[in-house]
Amino acid sequence: MPADFQIRHAVAADLPALVALERRAFTTDHLSPRQYRHHLSNPRALVLAAVDRTGLLGKAVVLFRKGSDIARLYSIAVDDAARGRGIAKALLRAVERDVRGRGCTRLRLEVNQANPAAIALYEKIGYRRFGAYAGFYEDGTDAWRYEKLLAGTKATRPRP
After folding, report:
1. Domain of residue 65, residue span
2. Distance from C-alpha of 118 to C-alpha of 97, rounded to nearest angstrom
């Protein structure tokens, strides 16, 4: 069954919707409008938008370090009203395709240890836990560190 939404690169016109989703999705650690403007124009960042005829449903922000084969999923969110449609999984698949296309062999992320739905999704699609950060988020909550070796790359052990 074809998806009733599409994943595309976010553009400057998406800025108000990206910031609004950020505020609805997270209670702390918000990306600011200034940060989004920077990421939208930065070649070492990727901002994807999941959209349908009603507007923005979800987003993903990925950061790249010059000279590194590791990309970092910095942020991902799906609007509460759009949950259950496979948007997070579709965003992750699109991110993985893009970072592979940029020559990255691994994708890393942090996830709040109190977010079992996200943890289950990451583990289901092949992300492996390899570490933790105590007090990682602004509110003091802890994060798990995850990594996925991207298809078509040689296996290596995660480096903390």
Report:
1. 6-149
2. 20
